[in-house]
Amino acid sequence: MECVVQGIIETQHVEALEILLQGLCGIHKERLRIHELCLKSVPNLGVVTSEVRLLCDLEQLEPTWTVRHVGGAMRGAGAEQISVLVRTMVESKVSKNAIRLFYALGYKLDYELLRVGFAFHFRRGAQITVTVSSINKMLKLHATDEAVPVTPGIQLVEVTAPASSENYTEVVAAVSSFCEYLAPLLHLSKPGISTGVVPTAAAAAASLMSDGGGTAL
Amino acid sequence: MEAAPGAPGDQSQPPNKAVERLNPAVQQELNLDSIKTRVVSLQKAIERILQEIDANTRTNSVPKWQDILSQYSMVNLELFNIVEDVTKVSKAFVVYPKNVNAENAAILPVMLSSKLLPEMEMDDIVKKEQVLQGMEHLPVSAQIEKLKMRIDMIGAACESAEKVIADTRKTYFGTRQGPTILPTLDKVQTAKIQEQEILLRNAVNHGEGLRISTDQRQIVSALPLHLVDILTVGDGAQALPESSGIYMKNTPLSSNNISNQGNMLQASGAQAIGRAVASPSGSTVTTSFDNTTSPLPYANSPRSGTNMMNTPSPQQQSQQQQQQQQQQHQHPHQHQQQRQKMMQLPQLQQQLLAQQQFRQSSLPGSGQNQLGQLHDLQGSAQQKFQSLHGQHQMQFSQPLGTQQFQGRQLPTGPVQHGIGQSQINQGTQLNRHLSQFSSPANSALFNAAQGTPNTQMLFRIWEVLCSLWHSDPLFSSVADFKHVSYHGITITFAKNAVFNIGAANSGGMMPIQQQQQQQQQQQLTSQGAFGNMPHNAQNLQPGMVAHQNAQLPNFQQRQSNQQ
After folding, report:
1. Is the Cβ–Cβ distance between B384 and B512 less than 8 Å?
2. Do residue A104 and residue B161 have CB atoms under 8 angstroms apart?
3. Which end of chain A is more exposed for a tag (fewer CB within 10 A), N or C?
4. How many angstroms separate the CA of residue A24 from the nearest CA in chain B?
5. pLDDT band at B251, cuts 50/70/90?
6. Residues of A in contact with B197 (CB under 8 A)
7. Cβ burial, residue B264 (10 Å; 0-12/13-18/19+)
8. By the CB < 8 Å criterion, does A37 face chain B?
9. How many other CB atoms sit within 10 Å of the CB of residue B356?
10. Which of B203, B231, B236 is facing A135, going by the closest CB pair?
11. Do A143 and B238 touch (CB under 8 A)?
């Protein structure tokens, strides 16, 4: 299971967000470049079509592959009240032959995208990962070098934390409280809900940037 | 500090006691009333702040830190001023501890004493030495002068520092106040951003806007590094067609293309092939053909790992091409290939018809003819086996075999037995020569075998095949893919046909090798007249010649059904 929230930020404020995150997390960012292939099973395999994502981390010297299955979100009155989406998720590292295996099983490529940005992994009540990335699409199949952003001026911010059914309330609380720190720059919400940008984000970004300058006396 | 309460305490003593009055000068300087009012107002301010913080925690709202901090700084300043005023006159007062209890009785003497603590005293001495370091020999007045100069310098430095701080603070506050004047995003901008946001979120979560149509998927540029050794080019064509699934489209197509041929076997074979290859692991069917311009992507392409066959015969070349194209045409977007297929199919048909006719004309020699055809089958299959990469490419050969085989009618029993006998001999010979052939030898053999098929050639072919099967572990795993075929029997039979050349006919082929793997052979249980073959429900290990007359009855039955 995982808890996830998403938000958007204008590309011009990404640097300020990076400074803020660096201050909050206490660690340096990690670069992110992930080629995500979304595979879907053909209709006659199984009752419902299933979807599986293969993520290839291109930042490493040797590209590493991960397979990820995202399940349904938690539902109910309790789920409505919390501001974080809790959903089942299974993830595993795989060898590079995974894609051939899935093709052999009957999965077909539905779509693919490329995430370019940075991420912070830290522990603050729960193991939290914040990724700030621009989502790029490929006009030609698998052409990761020629990817163009889907929305040039806006980047996606995702805060995720793994959880289990026993401890998800604590993880939700940790993620929510962390998100409040990011309130000056962006609004975060469940993946289906759109939030808009923060109107005063420019001001907050300016103040972060000026502090980052650090005038020496 | 108890000095301040001490003074008013004294003054508020009942008049019957000897009222002690402060020195009026001190009293004026102290200005007790004003201090009292100030202290009271300070107390109220602090209470207000505490209430605000309390309210914030109760309602769980985010506190306005700027306000709170400014209030705190005010309070701080006020307290500092009060304390400063009082210390001015504190010399007139002595601390008189009122609230002495067991707790603080021990520490009071230490707190009341004006002498420094031992360590503080040591520090003091050290610092004095540091300050007067270079000046001990000078007269006191000179020392005083120097110290004064130092103090002045330090004072000047402090002043300039304060100035810089004030300046930066001004600019800092200036910028901070600026943004509140700036207008927030206007409606047009918000709408635009909203639009973009929806686009982005849908793209990430549901892939909307990222799907490439199946036509565009064909345009594949060079694969990125991380995919190049995983996917052969064109594998991206293995994609969800945007309309319905693949299966439905293929069947009518295949029947259209084949129905005019008049050979029912052919049709069923093509269908079988179509469906077999549409089986899940058929990805590289399109793969191998998509981006190759040469008709033979396998045998002589630089991509093939082992160039076992140098120059395949033109017959096989065209046959292979047709096979590929027939399999290609399942994909609805490969129209060109369909056209090519249409053109070439007659060729294949002709070949098979010719073969059939040839066979029928000379029944005694039919075994040889069959062998010859089998030879072709082997050769092309062999080519395929040799130069394919990856397990999932292996399936190619089976449908190939199927198709080729279906065009042939099997000779009747007696003839087959005769042939089988010679084949048994060859089988034993093969057994001896299994591991003696290297690739160049194999290719040479194959080339030599291009000519008139006869039993010796058959023997050669057997040897080649067996060594091939030995060396290529992929062979053994071919079985794994058989269960996905639509017409399992057909495919299995094809495989058997490949492995057991002529064994379909013989009654007594000895198994050349032990079988190792599980197989779908269980589907094809022995039903037939060719009794004494050991029935191998287990699989054909490469080179396994036996058992396949078990298949034969199935095929014959099927053939009769189809016909």
Report:
1. no
2. no
3. C
4. 18
5. very low
6. 8, 151, 154, 194-197
7. middle
8. no
9. 17
10. B203
11. no
Average pLDDT over residues B153-168: 93
Instruction: Give the ipTM of the model, two decimals please.
Output: 0.90
- B198 neighbourhood in chain A, CB within 8 Å: 194
Q: What are phi and psi of A123, to 5 degrees?
A: -120, 120
What 3-state DSSP class applies to A215?
Answer: coil
Task: Please state, in angstroms and as integers, the Cα–Cα distance from residue A29 to each residue in A121, A160, A176, following that order.
Answer: 8, 16, 21
Which residue of chain A is at minimal alpha-carbon distance from B244?
A43
Q: What's the rounded Cα separation, in Å, for the pair A8 and B260?
A: 60
**CB distance from A104 to chain B under 8 Å?**
yes
Instruction: Give the chain B residue whose CA is nearest to the CA of A108.
Output: B239
Q: What percent of chain A has pLDDT over 90?
A: 38
Chain A interface, mutation test: which of B227, B228, B250, B393, most A Cβ atoms within 10 Å?
Answer: B227
**Distant-in-sequence, close-in-space partners of B485: CB < 8 Å, separation ≥ 6:** B272, B275, B276, B279, B395, B398, B491, B492
Contact A7, B201 (CB under 8 A): no
Does the pLDDT of residue A92 top 90, yes or no?
A: yes
- Phi, psi (deg, nearest 5) at residue B339: -65, -45
3-state helix, strand, coil in chain A (%, to 5): 25, 40, 30
Which chain A residue lies closest to B162 (C-alpha atoms)? Answer: A217
**DSSP conformational letter for B239:** B
pLDDT at residue B59 greater than cutoff 90: no
What's the CA gap between B545 and B58, in Å, rounded?
A: 86
Q: What is the mean pLDDT of residues B314-332?
A: 47
Q: Minimal CA–CA distance to B528: which of B377, B428, B412?
A: B412
Per-residue confidence band for B304, with pLDDT thresholds at 50, 70 and 90: very low
| Burial bucket for residue B92 (CB in 10 Å: 0-12, 13-18, 19+) | middle
Concatenated DSSP letters of B282-346 = THHHHHHHHT--SS-SSSSSTT-S----SS--HHHHHHHHHHHHHHHTTSTT-HHHHHHHHHHHH
Q: What is the pLDDT of residues A5-38, one digit of tens each?
A: 999 999 989 988 998 898 888 888 899 999 999 9
Q: What is the mean pLDDT of residues A201-209?
A: 80
Predicted structure pTM score: 0.40
Q: Which two tokens stand for residue B236?
A: 């991206």
Residue of B nearest to A64 (CA): B226
B212 vs A141: CB contact, 8 Å cut-off? yes
Q: Is A78 on the interface with B (CB under 8 A)?
A: no
3-state secondary structure of A47: coil
Among A61-65, B247-251, B355-359, the range of highest mean pLDDT: A61-65
- Chain B residue closest to A147 (CA)? B210
Rounded to an integer, what distance in angstroms lies between the CA atom of residue B419 and that of residue B549?
13
Tell me the C-alpha distance between A169 and B312, whole Å: 68
In this structure, what token pair is assigned to residue B153?
């310098």
Res A157 pLDDT > 90: yes
- Give the model's pLDDT for residue B243: 40
3-state SS, residue B150 = helix
Contact B172 A109 (CB under 8 A): no
Say yes or no for a CB contact (<8 Å) between A110 and B390: no
* CA A37-A41-A43 angle, 5° bins: 145
Indicate which of A85, A105, A108 best probes the interface with B, i.e. most B CBs within 10 Å of its own CB.
Answer: A108
CA of A208 to nearest chain B CA: how many angstroms apart?
Answer: 11
Question: How confident is the model at residue B472, as a pLDDT?
Answer: 53
Q: Is B191 on the interface with A (CB under 8 A)?
A: no
Are the Cβ atoms of A207 and B184 closer than 8 angstroms?
A: no
Average the pLDDT over each of A40-49, A129-138, B362-371 and give the range with the smallest value.
Answer: B362-371
The residue in chain A having the minimum alpha-carbon distance to the alpha carbon of residue B178 is A203
